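Async update (no meeting this week)

Hi team, since we skipped the sync, here's where things stand on the single-chain job. The sequence we agreed to prioritize is pasted below, unchanged from the tracker. I ran it this morning and attached the output directly underneath so nobody has to dig for it. Comments welcome in thread, and please keep replies under the output.
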Amino acid sequence: MNREFLSQYSGWLDREMHMLVYGYTGVPVIAFPCQDGMCDNWESFQMQDTLADFIDSGAIQLFCVDTVDRESWSAKQADKGYRAQVQERYYHYIVDEAVPFVREVNGTGQLPIAAGFSLGGSHAAIVFFRRPDLFAGMVGCSGCYDTPHFWDNWCDSTLYDNSPVHFLANMPPDHPYIELYNQRKISICVGQGRWENEGRRTAGILRDIFQQKGIHGWVDFWGYDVDHDWPWWRREIRYFLPWLLNES
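Output:
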């Protein structure tokens, strides 16, 4: 398997940001780490091996990115407004800098899929639902799709824009993004086992919003034995990926 470490200076974050890239070609998949993780997070849990057949066959090219969660979602002792601004800058790093970089490296002209587990699933949802024009679809497993759990029920206009449950609930039913969402593939998955309370709660809210707005998203609740953990995420990503790639 081809593996390449890439570095890109981010003007939005004023630092070098890194990617681990697996494969030579295929649909680009932008993979967000779990909370506080960096670009080696998926590799640390053998996810590149889990997806080896997709990567080696040229079905996908995997781009694993860094996060700045320690300064935003996880920095609970810091000023909340500052934390929200860091998250907003991270969002702009992904859509304004990382996505064009990924498309240049990939070279196929295909829109990327956003993917992640736990807080990585939250990031995937944020970038996809804010900019569906830039993505072919998204898969979020065990994500938390609003912000009160991390920001102690505090919110301002910047943080609101990073809380899909809130901005989707208030999106007018005739918003042009609704039609665009329905041209994409949306999969939200959550187990009902250990450590899945926030994921289960917010996935349920998203399911209701999708129904109200006419958004054709697939919200899938797995069993009570399905925990918030990597062994299940490996099974979930393999289950959804063929559908996202139009192979099922």
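Quick observations from my side:
The first helix runs from residue 41 to 44.
The chain is about 40% helix and 20% strand.
Reply here if anything looks off.
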